# Entry
Amino acid sequence: MDTHGGVPARSPSYEGVWRFTAPAVDVSVPQARHAVRDLLVRQGVPVHDEIMDGLLLIVSELVTNAVRHAALLSPEIAVEVAIGPEWIRVSVEDNHPYRPKALEADYGQTGGRGLLLVREIAQEAGGACDVEHTASGGKIIWAALPLAPMAPGPGGAPQEAAVTSPRTDPSVP
# Structure
């Protein structure tokens, strides 16, 4: 436990892990986005507006991908929000075994760049994203972002921020 002046420091009251499930249908996309936004507001998470916007776009992309590509084998998806003192992690879990990769898509296509967008938003914010297998054969796709944007480095370039995932092993609750 951390101490401050000999007194044990308490974790910020907004820290924790929340999980909810939703059917793998189109209407779940805006519902998941609103649920995550409402959770962050209700918990008083000090998330910067830029990060909030990116995070909600990531939630939309990940839930949309699960609805479009996994619903046949996974009629229900799970969304998890884990909040630490300096970061936030969102993940979407489904039971489909296919492990997608962020690929550059043909710009003539109207879709196919969701994971690329998630990766770019996470990296630009100083965060990370990945795809992991679950013990049941499905997958978890997650993105972790810092609560505040990266500070500009020398010459105005963003500095790298260390964002760690609150849970690197998907089998651990």
